[in-house]
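pinned: reference chain
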Amino acid sequence: MLRCLLFLFALTVGGFAHAQNLEKGKEINTTCAGCHGDLGQGGSRGEYPRLAGQGAKYLEAQLRAFRARTRVNIPMYPYTQERELPDEDIRDVSAYLASIELPTQWPVFKATDDALTRLTLTERVMIIPRVPGNLANGEALYQKQCVTCHGKTGLGRGMFPMLVGQYTSYLKRQMEKYIKGERPHDEEAVGGLLDKLKEDDLQDILAYITTLQDQK
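pinned: its C-alpha cells
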C-alpha cells in the first residue's frame, strides 16, 4: 500500500522534470533521521527543524545552500557534498520528505487497533504548543508582511517554506539569524522585512503562526 501511495505521489507531484524515486528518498532519509526523525518531525524541542511536509523545492534549495555554504551550518556541510548527496538524491529525499503528512489532531482509535497501530498513529501527530503574544497584532503583521511568500495559512509556496507546524524556537532562531545577517532572507536590506519589526512584533507573529495549524 505504501509503495503504491509513494508511486502515485511521484506521478502527481508538480515541478519535477520526471517522477522522483520516493523509495530511494525514504532510504536516504535514514541518514537524516538521526537528527530530524524517521518521519521528518524534527526534535529536541526545535534544535532540529521539522522537514515533513515542507515544500520540495525549498528543501532542495536549502540542501544546495548548505553544500555551497551560502547558508552556513557546519554539521550539515559533509552530508550535502556531491559525493555524499548528488543532485538526484537531493531531489529524491526532498520529494519524499515533502510527501509526509503529520496530522495535527490526536487519532481516534478503533477497538480493534493493537498497541503497535496505536503507537504508530500517535507518533505521526505533530502539535506545536501555543505561545504567548498579541494574536490580533500578530495576524495583522503576518497578513501584511508574510502572507505573500508564506501563504495565508502558513503552508508556504514555491521556494518559500512552510511555517505552520514548525517548532517556534526554531522559527525564532531563524528570525534572529535573518536580522543579524547570518542567513539571507530577501533582496532588501540585511534582515529584510524582519529588521523593521520590534521584538514584541516578532513574538506576536510567532504566536499567531501557532494558531494556523488548526486550519490545516
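why pinned: Residues 2-99 form a domain with the Cytochrome Bc1 Complex; Chain D, domain 2 fold (CATH 1.10.760.10). The two ends are 25 Å apart (CA to CA).
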